[in-house]
Design a protein that fits this description.
By secondary structure, the chain is mainly α. The N and C termini lie far apart (about 40 Å). It contains 10 helices and no strands.
């Protein structure tokens, strides 16, 4: 309820309505900001990578790992559909990595937009599976390898990169990503 939000935020109803028309609009904005913040949070383990296949695998797995670590976060962003759409940092990074993969010859896709839609849809469904109890590192690596395979990466390389990206996250994210908790 709006009354709960303004009380928690310590603002007046007038201030709330100056920025939002509805509670749904405020919740959607919050969720969008959480998803964008998540993308900023992982820069120090993701943005340092040059290889587009490793970037794709690392970015994809980071969202799945976050949902595993914090199922409420995963439920919130998937419920509101915040990983789809044409705008925003997430979409920009995903499409940029796919373009780099096409340029490098690592990816063979019909369209960057279609490939991004496939990745974002897979990410959404994988998060839903994880928060409903499918919390298994093999699942995270497997779905990552399948996404990479759909971009034209060989099954062997896709499996190898998915495993390397997962191991990288497990070893490098602690201490670099504020929300990270051990995954076993």
């Amino acid at each position: 309820m709006i009354e709960d939000v303004v009380r928690h935020a310590k603002v007046s109803r007038g201030t709330f309505y100056r920025h939002f028309d509805t509670l749904d609009e405020a919740v959607t904005q919050l969720a969008f900001e959480l998803a964008e913040q998540m993308t900023f949070d992982i820069f120090n383990v993701y943005d340092i990578l040059d290889d587009p296949v490793m970037r794709t695998a690392t970015g994809f797995q980071t969202f799945l790992a976050r949902a595993w670590i914090d199922p409420d976060w995963g439920g919130f962003i998937t419920h509101l559909g915040l990983m789809d759409g044409e705008h925003g940092l997430i979409s920009s990074k995903v499409k940029g990595d796919i373009r780099k993969g096409v340029t490098s010859g690592d990816y063979t896709v019909v369209s960057v937009d279609l490939a991004a839609d496939l990745l974002m849809g897979a990410k959404h469904e994988a998060i839903r599976r994880i928060i409903s109890g499918g919390r298994d590192p093999a699942y995270i690596r497997g779905v990552t390898a399948m996404v990479l395979g759909s971009f034209g990466v060989s099954p062997e390389k896709a499996k190898q990169v998915a495993a390397q990206a997962f191991q990288r996250l497990v070893t490098e994210a602690p201490g670099r990503v504020s929300w990270w908790r051990p995954i076993e």
